[in-house]
């Protein structure tokens, strides 16, 4: 995991980008306290779901992650965007002319 700071609220989290679609973000208490979006949610305490359910993501942080990934600051383990279709190459190859 690599440290990344939210451009908006300066919360520092650990990020691991497994692919363009999948990002793991690890929050610590300090980051949670700093993040405006998450602090907001805690203050008003009206989030959906049961306690302990996954908390809302910080939109600014998500944008920061994407920007960092595009800039090459975050390593992406699998850069393939979509799995390639399997090509059926059973078609007979034309016999060479003699
Ligand atoms: Zn934030």
List keywords for this structure.
binds zinc ion; four-stranded mixed β-sheet; alpha+beta; single chain
How would you portray this structure in words?
This protein is an alpha+beta fold. The protein has one domain (2-71). It is built from three helices and four strands. It has helices at residues 29-34, 36-44, 59-71; strands spanning 2-5, 12-19, 23-26, 76-78. Strands 1, 2, 3 and 4 form a four-stranded mixed β-sheet that branches. A hairpin with a 6-residue loop joins strand 1 and strand 2. The longest helix is centred in the middle third of the chain and has 13 residues, at 59-71. The chain is rod-shaped, with a radius of gyration of 21 Å. The chain starts with a strand and ends in a 20-residue tail after the last strand. The model has no long low-confidence stretch (mean pLDDT 79). Residues 6, 8-9, 11, 35-37, 58, 60-61 line the site of zinc ion.
